[in-house]
């Protein structure tokens, strides 16, 4: 039958996510910038989906400097979350304003079907976590931001993750101290942004006793670690936030160049996703069968 939304309830996705983080197995969450990408992530056998603020803003043609709005993030996140049975974690930047804004952000993301979000301790508006020139708010400000977010959720299993960007501005020990304060404020998980080496990941794991999220983004400040390395280090989840966008945009750029130079896309056919494969992801046959069963319109010549 046709499926217009996830077959798993929002509440079940959230409880499954909580259980998975305690399972002892690393949860792998590639970034999805569209619902179609999310369906491909599920088909490939990953455990969850991540919605990156950087990828979302890039897909809108904007730099990742806090220009996207709450409504844009909620709308895109909701369509992605409902496209698969997997739990979806979304980047909520700084909560889009003051603590009350962070509270409303959580309420709207929960309504949209997300399994959780992360809030960061940068000033508002923020910058990409792997760029220089970041600034972080005081610990007290971030604690109030998190407190508002935790209070606003109605489903206790909606995951509130705290991201700290202090490694790049104040050093590793400060980032660890901040993470501990954020846990005390109610954060369920800590996102350790822009750590440099496996040793730093290990030191963070040894100091913070809640689920930890690792960011394996390309071309940034972090050494790219394998899933086996992260599992051995005791991390609970890993995101690949912009990977699918970079793969897709790299292929698009090369393809457009070839069409412009060759005057045809003939040489690109073996690098494209075939129409038949796309239709498999879209479940085209299921929708046609559903339509044939229920559609009641009769053409005039058949009356």
Give descriptors for this structure.
single chain; about 300 residues; alpha/beta; TIM Barrel
Main sheet: strands, sense, barrel = 8 strands, parallel
Based on CA inertia axes, which overall geometry fits? globular
Runs in which pLDDT lies below 50 for 5 or more consecutive residues are: none
CATH topology of the largest domain: TIM Barrel
What's the gyration radius in Å? 21 Å
CATH level-four homologous superfamily name of the largest domain: Phosphoenolpyruvate-binding domains
Relative strand content: 5-15%
Count of extended strands: 8
Please estimate the helix content.
40-55%
Distance between the termini: 28 Å
**Total domain units:** 2
Mean pLDDT across the residues is 93
The largest sheet has its strands arranged as 1-8-7-6-5-4-3-2
Level-1 CATH class name of the largest domain: Alpha Beta
Number of helices, where a helix is a run of at least 4 consecutive DSSP H or I residues: 12
Structural class: alpha/beta
Give me the CATH architecture of the largest domain, please: Alpha-Beta Barrel
What pattern of helices and strands is seen along the backbone? HEHEHHEHEHEHEHEHEHHH
Describe the structure.
The protein is α/β, with parallel strands linked by helices and 303 residues long. It has two domains: 10-241, TIM Barrel (Alpha-Beta Barrel), CATH 3.20.20; 264-302, no CATH class. Helix content is 45%, strand content 11%. The chain has twelve helices and eight strands. It has helices spanning 10-21, 35-43, 53-59, 70-81, 99-111, 139-152, 172-184, 198-207, 227-233, 243-262, 275-282, 284-294; strands at 27-30, 49-51, 88-91, 116-120, 159-164, 189-192, 212-215, 237-240. Helix 5 packs parallel to helix 6.
């Amino acid at each position: 039958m046709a499926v217009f939304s996830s077959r798993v309830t929002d509440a079940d996705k959230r409880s499954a996510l909580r259980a998975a983080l305690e399972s002892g197995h690393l949860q792998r969450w590639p970034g999805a910038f569209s619902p179609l990408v999310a369906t491909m992530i599920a088909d490939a056998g990953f455990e969850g989906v991540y919605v990156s603020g950087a990828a979302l803003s890039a897909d809108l043609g904007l730099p990742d400097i806090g220009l996207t709005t709450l409504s844009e993030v909620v709308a895109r996140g909701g369509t992605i979350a409902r496209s698969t049975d997997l739990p979806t974690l979304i980047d909520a930047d700084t909560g889009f304003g003051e603590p009350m804004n962070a509270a409303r952000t959580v309420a709207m993301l929960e309504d949209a079907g997300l399994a959780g979000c992360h809030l960061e301790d940068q000033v508002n508006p923020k910058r990409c976590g792997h760029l220089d020139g970041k600034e972080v708010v005081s610990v007290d400000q971030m604690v109030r931001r998190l407190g508002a977010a935790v209070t606003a959720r109605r489903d206790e299993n909606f995951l509130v993750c705290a991201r700290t960007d202090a490694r790049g501005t104040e050093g590793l020990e400060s980032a660890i101290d901040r993470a501990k304060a954020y846990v005390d404020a109610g954060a369920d998980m800590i996102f350790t942004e822009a750590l440099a080496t496996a040793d730093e990941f290990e030191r963070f794991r040894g100091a913070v006793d809640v689920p930890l999220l690792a960011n394996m983004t390309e071309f940034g400040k972090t050494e790219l670690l394998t899933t086996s390395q992260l599992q051995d280090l005791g991390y609970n989840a890993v995101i690949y936030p912009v990977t699918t966008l970079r793969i897709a945009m790299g292929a698009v750029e090369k393809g457009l160049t070839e069409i412009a130079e060759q005057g045809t896309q003939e040489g690109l056919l073996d690098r494209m996703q075939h129409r038949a494969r796309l239709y498999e992801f879209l479940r085209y046959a299921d929708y046609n069968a559903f339509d044939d069963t229920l559609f009641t319109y009769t053409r005039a010549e058949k009356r």
